[in-house]
Design a protein that fits this description.
The complex is a heterodimer of chains A (253) and B (266). Chain A has 253 residues and is an all-alpha fold. Chain A has 10 helices and no strands. Classes of the chains: A mainly alpha (253), B alpha/beta (266).
Chain lengths: 253, 266
């Protein structure tokens, strides 16, 4: 009985949210109602893989473009962040040297990085990757660092007692001990990367969910904006859940 | 020449008013093949002392010589068993032991290293648990893995830091016997320094028992255990010599707790 209730409650919540949305749409002139949003967007959802023009594509295709961009930017970000996290975690000197820079770079918005990327790379695609990488890397840096710091003295003693080489210590003790923390960092980084993608697509006008959203705003098709917003939310949620599952698996060891 | 010579070792932690002297002017000599136990209560600094002898911790003052050479860092021919097992949770029992073997014998082939590891695990009765991870093993089994790991590196010296402290009485006894069997399996017994808070455990295993009191004083007078091996806990209960050693150790451990009463040494 309780279990069915627990399964049903999220749907009750969604229904309530739709009611509020519907209510608001009667008061705000340009806000489309849930039904209107569905009517105008269903072509994208029902034919998710259809390509009609550069921006006029099925939602699955648009999401795919965005995801690919996120994947590349995210991989670039964690490829930089993980080694940096290990270095900062293992060396107090490096930590003291780079911590202030890190604290200054961390709060910078993707909207601020993107123009710099455009100056550096002169093309929108690498600029977008640059912005995603630079914005999303920090949680991975910080969590990896914290993970290395949290390695119990016992494990360092094992390394000393067995007289393991620095390389073996790193591979057999430091990396496995840090892995769960790293994955927490990856999950948070991926969340940020997905936030950045929309901003960077909006600014560069490249095809993807964010680019689509901006174009539909310019074309005054407001229902499509809501459709894009919901898509962004749902994809982000699914990404987070997938990373969460991977993380839980690692922690179970 | 003695294998291990510790002379005038001192160690304190903290500074200023927080300074705590843990060891003051501690000396100890261990002969080759000897099994020496340091018996003391919790917090008397015996674990710190062991860490210094092993080379995990540098003393503030004094020196440790092993084989006539000054100790800096952990010795290559030493193995250590900690109370909390110190196994790596992401590796199976076999992998834990194999890591030690491959570090101790880097020139061996992978098969030989593996064979050495599994042979030593079988010797402690874990032949069927080779591929289990530490969290799938009981406390006693984990400590067996740690003991197998120590012996698999064929050490010349063995350091035991309250190795059976976390185990129940029955497991403790069977592991103690196992340890006796393993350390006398080679051509000559492995030189062993054990830290323990149990006088009985020290009686069962040692050639010599050294009492250690709290409050950073020099070690108490060592006492020799002149009993033939193998010893059993039952025999020790009724043996006169064992009673004498027990009384000596207990009295030197408790003397400082009650400075006004005169203790009689049996």
């Amino acid at each position: 009985m309780k279990r069915t209730a627990n399964l049903l409650l999220p749907f009750v919540g969604i229904a309530l949210a739709l009611l509020v949305w519907g209510g608001l749409s009667t008061m705000v002139t340009d806000l489309p109602s849930p039904l209107k949003t569905w009517e105008e967007s269903k072509v994208y959802i029902l034919k998710p893989l259809e390509k009609r023009g550069e921006m006029d594509q099925g939602i699955a295709l648009l999401a795919y473009y965005s995801l690919m961009r996120v994947a590349r930017g995210f991989l670039l970000g964690i490829a930089l962040a993980t080694p940096l996290g290990f270095i900062l975690g293992m060396s107090k000197t490096a930590m003291r040297m780079f911590d202030p820079i890190m604290q200054v770079l961390r709060p910078i918005s993707p909207l601020a990085w993107l123009p710099l990327g455009l100056i550096l790379f002169r093309k929108s695609e690498p600029a977008a990757l640059f912005a995603i990488a630079v914005c999303s890397m920090w949680p991975t840096v910080i969590n990896t660092m914290a993970g290395v710091r949290a390695i119990p003295q016992d494990y360092w003693n094992v390394a000393k007692v067995l007289r393991l080489s620095p390389l073996t210590t790193f591979a057999k003790i430091v990396v496995p001990a840090t892995l769960p923390y790293m994955f927490t960092g990856f999950r948070l980084s991926l969340g940020i990367a997905w936030l950045v993608i929309v901003a960077s697509e909006m600014l560069t006008g490249t095809p993807g969910v964010g680019g689509f959203l901006w174009q539909e705003y310019n074309s005054l098709i407001y229902a499509h904006i809501l459709h894009a917003i919901l898509t962004i939310g749902i994809v982000g949620f699914v990404l987070d859940r997938l990373m969460g599952i991977a993380e839980a698996r690692l922690r179970a060891i | 020449m003695a294998l291990i010579e510790v002379s005038g070792v001192s160690k304190s932690f903290g500074a200023g008013s927080n300074r705590r002297d843990v060891l003051t002017d501690v000396s100890l000599t261990i002969e080759r093949g000897e099994f020496v136990s340091i018996v003391g209560m919790m917090g008397c600094g015996k674990s710190t002392f062991l860490k210094i002898v092993v080379g995990l911790l540098a003393p503030d003052d004094g020196r440790v010589h092993i084989n006539g050479l000054r100790v800096r860092g952990v010795q290559p021919n030493a193995a250590i068993v900690f109370q909390n097992y110190s196994l790596l949770p992401w590796f199976s029992a076999l992998e834990n032991v194999r890591l030690a073997v491959s570090a101790a014998f880097p020139d061996w082939t992978k098969e030989r290293q593996r064979e050495q590891a599994s042979r030593h695990l079988e010797a402690v009765g874990l032949g069927k648990a080779l591929h289990r991870r530490p969290n799938q093993l009981s406390g006693g089994m984990r400590q067996r893995v740690a003991i197998a790991r120590a012996f698999a590196t064929e050490p010349e010296m063995l350091f035991l830091d309250e190795p059976f402290g976390a185990l129940d009485a029955l497991t403790r006894e069977s592991l103690q016997q196992e340890l006796v069997r393993l350390s006398s399996a080679g051509e000559r017994p492995v030189t062993t320094l054990m830290i323990t808070n149990s006088v009985e455990e020290a009686l069962l295993l040692s050639d010599r028992i050294v009492p250690m009191t709290r409050g950073a004083r020099p070690l108490g007078h060592p006492v020799r255990v002149e009993l033939r091996r193998p010893r059993t806990a039952g025999e020790l209960m009724h043996d006169d010599h064992a009673a004498h050693v027990r009384a000596h150790v207990v009295s030197s451990l408790t003397r400082d707790l009650k400075p006004t009463t005169k203790q009689q040494v049996a």
